[in-house]
Specification:
- The protein has 89 residues and is an all-beta fold.
- It has a single domain, classed as OB fold (Dihydrolipoamide Acetyltransferase, E2P), CATH 2.40.50.
- Helix content is 0%, strand content 37%.
- The chain has a five-stranded mixed β-barrel.
- It is globular.
- The chain starts with a strand and ends in an 8-residue tail after the last strand.
- The mean pLDDT is 91.
Length: 89
């Protein structure tokens, strides 16, 4: 599971029929302190997240286990919206 921030949206008028009516968002992984790290990803939104929100991302076969994604050709899914991150050193 990855912590990420939603930074944009993707519009695809032609796509696999199993992806119709699914929102695609661009996310950027980040560390727990909010510093961006890694490359951007396109993820299917399963929790109605929006641009600017911190989210939890799953990838690979775990993404296909997200609600409503069974047998869907995806590699990343947003499965949670983060309310707060607390770090104790």
């Amino acid at each position: 599971m990855l912590l990420a921030r939603v930074v944009g949206t993707v519009v695809a008028t032609r796509k696999d029929p199993r992806l119709v009516s699914n929102k695609l968002l661009i996310v950027r992984p980040m560390d727990p302190r909010g510093k961006p790290e890694g490359n951007y990803l396109v993820a299917v939104d399963t929790v109605d997240a929006g641009v600017g929100e911190q989210v939890l991302i799953v990838s690979g076969s775990s993404a296909r286990m997200a609600a409503g994604m069974k047998d869907t050709p995806i590699d990343a899914a947003i499965v949670g919206i983060v309310d707060a991150v607390e770090i104790t050193d």
